[in-house]
Model the fold of this input.
Amino acid sequence: MSTRAILAASLPAAAAILVFGTLYGAAARAIMGVPLTVASSLLIFSGALQFALLALLSAGATTLPLVLITAALNLRHLVLGAVLRPRLEGSRLRRAALSFFLVDETFGFAVAAGQAAERAGKPVGPVTERTLLVAGLTCYLAWQVGTLIGLLGVGLAVAENVAGAIFPVLFIGLGALAVTRFSHAVRAVVAALLTAAIAFAWPDLRVVAPVVAAVLVALPGGER
Amino acid sequence: MNALVLALIVAITYGSRAISLVLLPRPGARLEAILARMPAPIFAGLATATLLTGDRSLVGGPILWAALGALVVSPARSLLACLIGGAAGYTLGTLLIR
Done:
């Protein structure tokens, strides 16, 4: 997969991330001030976590709840990283640098690119690493630009609904690419139902529900 | 929130991303087989999670229609087709709900 193809595939996600970045920048300015808002986007690079922190801060949370929500929301990275690990062949230093860009969307692009390379009989590692880097940089830049636009007070709230529609569509598309066997499709449907059940039973676990469901449905053996 | 708390949050976040990718050895064949079965369920779960709100309800109608549009064309196994299907679904949903 060429860099240009990775960029083209990443752009819809980057556009949606930019819109959410503006919402974050606009909301965070009043609560955290400009320097911390900029620093948080530059260093954390996680929309779900940053919005959750903002909600807690606006409710007057102290350090402990902030740390706990950070740990809870980041738990899914352990599983995403474990799934991606066999597909990366670079050195520890290289993997350490790439891991900064591990978010839900870049994970999806990297896995899909690796699977495409595998089907084409090409080496998986280089393609997966390049995709994680290029898609990661694209999404990272979009998040930073969005945050800055929001800090400048330019409202893109009208685009929020359209941006909100991009993520489910993107994940359905990536899921379709990841299905290479009938059993994958069955597991995907079961995971979707399980995620919905967990999210309805415990709404606060909505962010980690997909990973919990995926682990549960991936454990039983057998492929068809 | 001050700079120290931010640094702690950054460390936890980066650590969670790096720990599996950097510290884990390449998994054995059995674990690798389990991990290889996970991408499709993860994406299905993530898609589902983006359609739910924090108060046990579904997101707005056009977004559901966009997801339905993408789902209909998903057997084509093309990201572009899903994006087009999603856009068509969103447009249809907006027109129907108006």
Notes: The longest helix of chain A spans residues 3-32.
